[in-house]
Write the structure tokens for this entry.
Amino acid sequence: HKIVSGLAFNLKGVSANLISNFSKPVDRKRYITFDLKVKKEVSDFTLALEGINIFNEDYQEMRDIEGSARAIKMSIAYSF
């Protein structure tokens, strides 16, 4: 079983998305991870900060294959 749910909101020009991933595999322990992305547009630039597996949950995507540890990414995009 797997459930992916999301919550998105925009407050004063800052948008945020929270994604939860719940999995209950038959042959491994169940797990839930959370990802968060926050972005802001300033003039022609988009600034973004993204956290993947923000609570650093230990889990297995597949048998004997570990899932991703916490990762944080920052990006700046320019539109022209």
User: Anything to note?
Assistant: The chain has a mean pLDDT of 93. The radius of gyration is 16 Å.
